[in-house]
Automatic annotation (TrEMBL), chain B:
Protein name stated in the entry: E2 ubiquitin-conjugating enzyme
Alphabetized InterPro entries for the sequence: UBC (IPR000608), UBQ-conjugating_AS (IPR023313), UBQ-conjugating_enzyme/RWD (IPR016135)
Keyword Acyltransferase: no
Keyword Protein transport belongs to the record: no
């Protein structure tokens, strides 16, 4: 340990644990960036907080009538600026993909050209001033008052117009740019004319296309990709993230329209999704949602969201869903220490011989992927489960709880908040596994820091999830309890602490863990100490993991890599697995 | 008879096609189906199709004139916008169709297409390639085909 940074790291690690588990407020605040990664309970428990956060986002959720209003608004704006009719303004806006500024620019740059391109005639012509006219489509002769024309004056009978309009509407959204039937004429046919002659059914279709165009042809808006959702999202590009949460509660990335994926970027997501589909045949077994109980071997189905599984009686063995290890190994303090984030740590202790090591190496790339994929998928299904639980909570349990505990439902918002937070955290956690997969193996400092942060995130979330899922049960089944207020404090506190932690986590990962970068080589050794044996107080199984790797060095024919635990031949000066120097 | 309630427009168009045919074009309805036309187009002068007589069929679908007529070459022809089944790549037969267009305008457009092949919007990939890489040779082939397949009539 040779720099202040090392001290720094060590401090971080300890204070993180202490703060989180004791629920106390932060340690000395002059600790610079370290404060970003702590579970600090500095938020009020105000349940409106979440809502106020959402309202200052860089996007707006639009329902159908909002879309309609905005569309009308833009049309009126253009109509008044350009002194043209609403119908003409609509034609212009549609042509320029609903960009008010583009219409303005083009119009004032060269009005004549715009009129020509769009088909808006400056001087509308009336029908020829004669008693009878021949329709250019059916060739019948009509009195001129039963003929119609667009602004160009080319006469067609009403029946032919109706056929023309109906054919166009049933051909698709091209009807929004309908022109005069005369092939030599490009006069636009406006909405007023179309609506006046189309059937009721066709008018509805047309209006549908018109509304959809405002979303689909507009660079600022997109439909929510959730199936069956009719909301659109209006997004202000520039600054902020792309993650949006629709009114239907689905969160997605506005940029790539995949589900929300902070802290990883769109490219990583598409890489990861492609990787998954390529590997999906190998992965089928992972998706099976039952595993044998590690003790009695009966298949256990995971039906609760958290990873702490209890086998059915009489076995009742408590184990971790991810590593199938005894739950009691997972932490020293009650509540369970959650240590399943680390790939290496999940492996069995013991010295491997060379053949086994080599086999390991061959399996490593698939195993490595499997490790991340399984955790990604598990968090995904936990999130689905939490969403379902949230819905059940809102539709059934809150009312019941209100009854049992004699609390008005308005006082139970903290429970909904907690579940919303769980859902969000599962999502973030899920994507941290894609992040971890693509974090280069040789960036040891970053990897260690990342795994540390991820581990903390997991254990924090696990606590919140347990509290919201299991502790709540008591109050749902029992009578009024004087402990209920305490429960409220605890759950609201956990929600707030967890929210802060995850927000900081997302920011740290989005910044590419740049804090670690700056520390250079020294933070590696420092990191190891602080995350491992250095902070013995509360490190549970993780300090064992670190101790293990250094102990293995005693094997005389091999040296064990400090970073990846690979047993290298004595002659090697560089780790064959991770290229780290001995 | 299916022809008994033929729209007035089709009757008028037919009458006019027969009474004042466009130069180099003849179109006459089939006796048992007034919506089916036997068409002949003379190869335009100064085109590789000069001297040829090309047979086509033209059918007016139920939706006509809201939908375009269906036209196809029956005579084999070497042309980048016409495939070996005789189908024609012409905008007014597809998205640029307007009910104010007529059989006459369609046939005139096809005649014009024979004078001005457009290898940039090909229907027959091979012929278009040939046209672009060696126009003189392609034109020779077109002339050859015209002699071989379109000289009888
Ligand atoms: Zn008419
Ligand atoms: Zn017109
Ligand atoms: Zn939605
Ligand atoms: Zn994205
Ligand atoms: Zn069991
Ligand atoms: Zn575990
Ligand atoms: Zn290594």
């Amino acid at each position: 340990m040779d720099s202040e940074d090392d001290m720094h790291d060590a401090n971080d690690a300890e204070s993180l644990d202490d703060d989180f588990y004791s629920g106390e407020t932060a340690m000395d605040s002059d600790d610079g960036d370290a404060a970003d990664y702590e579970f600090i309970d500095n938020d009020s428990d105000d349940s409106d907080d979440l809502l106020s956060r959402r309202s200052q986002q860089n996007y707006t959720i639009l329902n159908e009538s909002d879309i309609h209003l905005r569309q009308e608004d833009d049309i009126m704006k253009i109509a008044s600026i350009l002194s043209i009719s609403n119908v003409a303004a609509a034609i212009l806006l549609r042509h320029y993909n609903w960009s008010v500024s583009k219409v303005n620019d083009e119009w004032f740059a060269d009005e004549e050209k715009v009129r020509r391109v769009v088909g808006l005639l400056e001087d509308p012509r009336a029908l020829p001033n004669v008693k009878e006219l021949t329709c250019g489509i059916c060739f019948e002769v009509y009195s001129s008052d039963s003929m119609r024309s667009a602004a160009c004056g080319h006469p067609f009978c009403v029946t032919c117009w109706q056929g023309y309009i109906s054919t166009s509407i049933n051909d698709g959204p091209g009807c929004l740019m309908l022109r005069c039937p005369d092939p030599s004429c490009s006069a636009a046919v406006g909405q007023d004319m179309i609506v006046s002659m189309a059937s009721h059914e066709d008018t509805e279709k047309y209006q549908r296309y018109f509304l959809r165009s405002f979303v689909e042809d507009n660079r600022k808006t997109k439909w929510c990709p959730a199936p069956g959702c009719d909301y659109a999202v209006d997004f202000i590009v520039g600054g902020g993230t792309f993650d949006v949460t629709c009114g239907c509660s689905y969160s997605f990335c506005w940029n790539c329209t995949e589900e929300a994926h902070r802290p990883v970027d769109c490219d990583t997501v598409s890489k990861w999704i492609m990787k998954n589909s390529a590997e999906s045949e190998n992965m089928n077994w992972i998706l099976a949602n039952s595993k044998p109980c590690p003790k009695c071997k009966r298949p256990i189905e995971k039906n609760q969201g958290c990873m702490h599984i209890t086998c059915t009686p009489p076995c009742k063995f408590e184990f971790c869903w991810l590593c199938l290890g005894a739950w009691s190994d997972h932490g020293e303090r009650t509540g369970g220490f959650y240590a399943c984030n680390r790939y290496e740590a999940a492996k069995q202790e013991g010295v491997y011989d060379d053949t086994e090591k080599r086999r390991e190496m061959a399996k490593n790339s698939l195993e490595r992927y499997t490790h991340y994929y399984e955790r990604w998928a598990t968090n995904q299904s936990s999130r689905q489960k939490a969403l379902a639980d949230l819905q059940q909570m809102q539709s059934i349990h809150l009312e019941k709880l209100s009854d049992r505990q004699g609390q008005p439902e308005s006082q139970l918002k903290f429970i909904t908040e907690a579940w919303l937070q769980i859902v969000e955290c599962r999502r973030v956690l899920k994507w941290t596994y894609a992040y971890g997969y693509y974090l280069p193996e040789r960036e040891h400092g970053k990897r260690q820091f990342f795994e540390y942060l991820q581990g903390e995130a997991e254990s924090g979330l696990e606590r919140l999830h347990q509290c919201a899922e299991k502790e709540l049960q008591t109050y749902l089944t029992g009578g009024p309890s004087k402990d209920f207020n305490e429960f409220r404090m605890k759950l609201a506190g956990l929600t707030s602490v967890t929210r802060n932690y995850f927000e900081n986590l997302v920011r740290a990962l989005e910044n590419g863990l740049s804090d670690v970068d700056g520390h250079g080589g020294s933070s590696r050794t420092g990191g190891t100490r602080s995350l491992g044996a250095g902070s013995s107080k509360s490190r549970g199984s993780r300090s064992k993991g670190a101790a293990r790797s250094s102990r293995a060095t005693d094997d005389s024919a091999h040296w064990s890599c400090e970073y990846c635990t690979f047993a290298n031949a004595k002659s090697a000066t560089v780790c064959q697995m991770c290229q780290q120097r001995r | 008879m299916a022809n008994s309630n033929l729209p007035r427009r089709i009757i008028k168009e037919t009458q006019r096609l027969l009474s004042e045919p466009a130069p180099g074009i003849s179109a006459s309805p089939s006796e048992d189906n007034m919506r089916y036309f036997n068409v002949m187009i003379l190869g335009p002068t100064q085109s590789p199709y000069e001297g040829g007589v090309f047979k086509l069929e033209l059918f007016l679908p139920e939706e006509y004139p809201m939908a375009a007529p269906k036209v196809r070459f029956l005579t084999k022809i070497y042309h980048p916008n016409i495939d070996k089944l005789g189908r024609i790549c012409l905008d007014i037969l597809k998205d640029k169709w307007s009910p104010a267009l007529q059989i006459r305008t369609v046939l005139l457009s096809i005649q014009a297409l024979l004078s001005a092949p457009n290898p940039d919007d090909p229907l027959s990939e091979n012929i278009a390639k040939h046209w672009k890489s060696n126009e003189a040779e392609a034109v020779e082939t077109a002339k050859e085909w015209t002699r071989l397949y379109a000289s009888g009539a």
